[in-house]
Request: fold
Amino acid sequence: MEEIIKRIVEENGCQLYDIEKTQEGEHKIFRVYITKPGGVTLNDCTKINNLLSPILDLEEPMEGRYFFEVSSPGMERKLTKPRHFEMSIGENVKVTTFNGEKIKGKLKSFIDGEAEIGNKKVQFGDIKKAKTYIDWNSYTKKRGLK
Reply:
């Protein structure tokens, strides 16, 4: 199923970021996250949703009733797979390791499962959670906002 989704997403000028099966309250959700340089638009999400919906009607990705969503992972997004780190080189990241160490800074590289963040290196297998983050002070200054 993932290969079919990936092919359709890529044929429409986007990249597959992740696929999530989750439960929010009483609702099961099958969510496809997409990205593209310059950002994902509502039209991108709608188009890919409309292309994938008939396929998911035939090959249901979850048992029972569920909601299907196509979305951007957002500006501040979880990094749960090695490819997420590869796609986020040059961005600010926050990492918490299994031993409780917190590392924050620019992701300089991700080579052979090792992330270089600022002046520290951490193995992917040692990471408990990670996400990108926006330095909102710099972000607003660059755009002339107060």
User: Anything to note?
Assistant: The radius of gyration is 17 Å. The chain has a mean pLDDT of 92. The longest strand covers residues 15-24.
